[in-house]
Amino acid sequence: MDEIDVTPANVAPVIEGVDEQPETAREVVFEIRDGAVRYGSNLAVADVNFDVGAREITAIIGPSGCGKSTFLRCLNRMNDFIPGAKVEGRITYHGENLYDPKVDAAEVRRRVGMVFQKPNPFPKSIFDNVAYGPRINRFKGDLHDLVEQALTRAALWDEVKDKLKKSAYALSGGQQQRLCIARTLAVQPDVVLMDEPCSALDPIATSRIEDLMVELKRDFTIVIVTHNMQQAARVSDMTAFFTTDVGEDASRVGRLVEFDRTHTIFTSPSDQRTEGYITGRFG
Q1: For residues 129 and 121, is the Cβ–Cβ distance under 8 A?
Q2: What CATH class is the domain 27-120+189-278?
Q3: Per-residue pLDDT band at 26 (split at 50, 70, 90)
Q4: E strands of 20-145, at which residues?
């Protein structure tokens, strides 16, 4: 993959009470135009158009089956692993076509890390879980220092610093999820995708992850899929609402309905379908 300049731009501060931020103030990480996904001849997601800004948390919400996770996987080319899956439209990453044949998909996945719905630590020690990616990438620096930095960023270092050689399976569910976040951060990504990262966690662990996301957005761009609308309202800067269209042949296609600042989506959405979902009238 050709070298991409990901140096942060000068971003104007957000002034409380101002609804509109000048478009020039946002550094665009992903630009999605007419995004769509097909599985074979079946259209699964269509009509996705929005931008993801640097060092923002973008939430993707919507009812089950509307293509949220399918679309999320487009951003790091995870759909490449699904037989018959085809991504259409144009998705750029820092201005470069993410699906250009010259682009190295493995490098995309290093720069755009992913945290999954259920914690999935490797059957290794805590240290080896975090060190796994850097070792694969032939990291030549101080590995112990890198592991400590990743665990610290994931708000886990103080809890595990004296048991790094113990199995990751000995950790609680919330700790395991933070370990998976640390494992993602250890390869020094630019973007972190999170697919329902708190759905298997209790409220206390969920709160820890939410606080962590807010801290991480100082240095990383985060895109999160969540069914929890309160979570989206608490942590995200921008929100994309997807819904499902059902055709006469009972086919289901996920579509982007609305994308805006999270405050606007939750207080004055422009589409009645968004309002209906937010207020619980459907979905």
Answers
A1: yes
A2: alpha beta
A3: confident
A4: 28-39, 42-53, 57-61, 85-93, 96-97, 112-115
Q: Nearest CA to 256 among 76, 59, 23, 55?
A: 59
Q: Can you give the pTM of this predicted structure?
A: 0.87
Output the six-digit token pair for 168.
Answer: 């990751």
Q: Are 61 and 85 in contact (CB under 8 A)?
A: no
| 151-191 tens-digit pLDDT | 999 999 999 999 999 999 999 999 999 999 999 999 999 99
Q: Which residues of 4-27 are buried (b: 16+ CB within 10 A; e: fewer)?
A: eeeeeeeeeeeeeeeeebeeeebb
Are residues 37 and 70 in contact, defined by beta-carbon separation less than 8 angstroms?
yes
Q: Tell me the pLDDT band of 244, cut-offs 50, 70 and 90.
A: very high
Give domain limits for the chain: 27-120+189-278
Beta-strand pair 42-53/28-39: antiparallel
Q: How far apart are CA 171 and CA 167, in angstroms?
A: 8
- Cα distances (angstroms) measured from residue 56 to each of 51, 150, 175, 220, 279: 11, 20, 24, 8, 25
Q: Nearest 5°: CA angle at 265, between 87 and 77?
A: 20
In whole angstroms, give the CA distance from residue 126 to residue 153: 15
Q: What is the largest CA-CA distance in the chain?
A: 60
Task: Give the dihedral sign, CA 38/44/50/54.
Answer: negative
